[in-house]
Structure formats: C-alpha cells, structure tokens
Specification:
The structure is a single chain. By secondary structure, the protein is mostly helical. It has five helices and no strands. The protein has one domain. It has helices at residues 4-7, 10-19, 21-31, 34-50, 67-78. Helix 2 (10-19) crosses helix 3 (21-31). The chain is flat and about 55 Å long. The protein starts with a helix and ends in an 8-residue tail after the last helix.
Amino acid sequence: MTKTDLIGDRTRDIQEWSSNHAALEAAVSGAADGDTYSLTMAILRGLDYTEMVQGLIPVSNVTGEGLVSLEAALSRILNLGEEVED
C-alpha cells in the first residue's frame, strides 16, 4: 500500500479491510450498488479463492515509513526465508 502519507486516517481502515472480509464487504456495500457492487464482490471472492491477497505493508515514499518492512517482506518472498549474503 503506497502513498500512506496522502491517505492519512484511512490507512487503518484499509489495513482492517485487508484482514477482515466482513468489514470490507460492509464498506463496499455502503459505497457501491448494483452492477458495481456485484462486480466488486465477484473480484473479492476470486482473490480470496485463489489466496492471492497478502498482508498489506503501508509505505510512504515521502517519509520513508514502511520501506524497511517492505524490503524485509520482499527478501523473505524472493529468498524463501533464507538469508543471502552479498
């Protein structure tokens, strides 16, 4: 999740939505209706079914906040958890 310095207080909401499907569905139902709601929910079910959604890492390029956490997560993914020496 990038540009956290621009979204302010919404960062907490977005992080909750990424880990709580009921909260996300409630937020979507309050903001969308009809075909938009149906399409959004179908996409969310597809992502959930394929387990493609991972935990979010809030990052701000302006402040640098979160970059260390992002680097660590990418290292774990790319190196399969193994430490690699240069």
